[in-house]
Amino acid sequence: MTRVSVVMAAYQGAAFIGEQIASILPQLGEEDELIISLDPSTDGTAEVVGRIGDSRIRLIDGPGKGVVKNFESGLSQAKGAYIFLSDQDDVWRPDKVEKVLFAFEREHTAVVMHDARIVDTALNVVNPSFFAWRGCRTGIVKNLIKNSYIGSCMALRRELLPFILPFPEELPMHDQWIGLQAERHGGVALLPEPLLDYRRHGGNVSSDHPASVGQMIRWRVGILKALGRKKTKEQTRWHR
């Protein structure tokens, strides 16, 4: 039985992906899995992964349509009861999986999100707490106004998958959607312990630079519409 699935979206990740995989695999059991959905890359990422030679790694072809669709591809194939999201360029702390699973048992929530240290390319600490820097809190309204959710620090119960997949087309990023749906279907627990080094460098897919006000408004309108459509489908299903 697969207890833990780790879903990693990868693209042009040869520089850091080996270090990230090395931080993940020792925390997985023999029946667990690391799914790497790799969008078409030319830097040798597939070769780096292939040289590791661990049977728990499932390298699959990503759809080549950006990071959101790449994570959707990986999540759709996950078998585990608990699903951890992973970027290709971070480093997990050695006790991350153990502490997150314990938090699931204690909190009985749909999603657990832990804190992280923000680091540079060489893993020098830039900020000791993503939570403090971002002002992370739970709540639907709060996270529609200013998103707290960061996918690389999130894990979810398998039962949440029907409520988040497929991802709506208008999503700017997947993590806010997952967090908001978890708020509606089981809740979110914040674990105030930095269990990941969140590496920021010039090649990150996500950006720390804020979008324009107009773009942020369009994104939030799109998410609200998507939440409304999803709610209607859920109500229809439950009332049949």
Any overview of this molecule?
This protein has 240 residues and is of the alpha/beta class. It has one domain: Spore Coat Polysaccharide Biosynthesis Protein SpsA, Chain A (Alpha-Beta Complex). The protein contains nine helices and nine strands. It has helices spanning 17-24, 45-52, 67-75, 96-107, 130-134, 140-145, 161-164, 174-184, 213-238; strands spanning 4-10, 33-38, 57-61, 82-86, 91-92, 111-119, 125-127, 154-157, 188-199. Strands 1, 2, 3, 4, 5, 6, 7, 8 and 9 form a nine-stranded mixed beta sheet that branches. The longest helix has 26 residues, at 213-238. The protein is globular and about 45 Å long. The two termini are 32 Å apart. The relative contact order is 0.15. Residues 235-240 have low confidence and may be disordered.
What order do the helices and strands come in, and which of them pair?
Layout: E1 4-10, H1 17-24, E2 33-38, H2 45-52, E3 57-61, H3 67-75, E4 82-86, E5 91-92, H4 96-107, E6 111-119, E7 125-127, H5 130-134, H6 140-145, E8 154-157, H7 161-164, H8 174-184, E9 188-199, H9 213-238
Parallel strand pairs: 1-2, 1-4, 2-3, 6-9
Antiparallel strand pairs: 4-8, 5-9, 6-7, 6-8
